[in-house]
Write a structure and sequence with these properties.
This protein is mainly alpha-helical. The chain is built from nine helices and no strands. The protein has two domains: 92 residues, no CATH class; 124 residues, no CATH class. Helix 4 runs antiparallel to helix 5.
């Protein structure tokens, strides 16, 4: 559920892009769109506006439920508002297409920098209260997130600006919109599964040690009784 919540703006962007004609023809949105613009540009503008709205809703719902702001949501909100607004104003999809790359590379830099600033890498600060792992495992896990964010950003950049350059602008935009949802979500799900498999080895070992210690304590108490 959290993954779907995190992807809520992207999902709404995808739906709005492919339903833009319906929204333009049947809602007040049509009054805000220049009819002279190509259909895929109009669709991009509508989808970008909906994604900005979705990001505000996402941040608001998370604050209402937890009374805290999640940094990932805030960074995403700022970027999509700034780059999305430029896309809407100029009618140029390139700005919103840069957003996933900028966001992912920003996170890659933050995770990498946390290994040199402060006592613990950022992934340990986020998960350390729930599980105990050796320092080497935390470092490996943190670097894996750096790699994931970098690859995700690079993949978005490639699909947005270098993939299938001979196709029409509309076809290339459609490809990027599909990748933005299915490609990036697929990469995220795949990475989370690999991370879970990697962690399971170390968590199970720690759990076994904890059980052994608890059993030993019970035996000691029984002997004393």
């Amino acid at each position: 559920m959290k993954l779907l919540f995190d992807f809520f703006p992207i999902i709404l962007f995808f739906v709005s892009y492919y339903q833009a004609s319906f929204l333009i023809d049947n809602t007040f949105i049509g009054q805000l769109i220049d009819p002279a613009k190509p259909d895929f540009i109009a669709a991009t503008i509508v989808a970008t506006g909906m994604a900005i709205l979705a990001s505000f809703i996402q941040v608001g719902v998370h604050w209402f439920k937890t009374h805290k702001f999640e940094r990932m949501h805030i960074f995403s909100l700022v970027l999509i508002t700034v780059l999305g607004s430029i896309t809407i104003f100029f009618g140029n999809p390139a700005f919103i297409q840069w957003k996933p790359t900028v966001l992912n590379w920003l996170f890659a830099g933050v995770f990498l920098g946390s290994m040199h600033v402060g006592e613990r890498p950022i992934i340990q600060r986020m998960m350390g209260e729930h599980i105990e792992l050796p320092e080497k495992v935390w470092s490996t896990l943190n670097l894996s997130w750096v790699t994931f964010f970098f690859i995700s950003g690079a993949a978005n950049l490639y699909v947005a600006f270098y993939y299938n350059v001979g196709a029409t602008p509309e076809a290339r935009m459609d490809t990027w919109v599909n990748f933005k949802l299915f490609g990036l979500m697929g990469l995220t799900i795949g990475f989370v599964i690999l991370q879970a498999l990697y962690l399971s080895r170390h968590i199970s070992e720690d759990d076994l040690k904890g059980k052994d210690d608890d059993t030993k304590d019970l035996d000691d108490n029984g002997d004393k009784a």
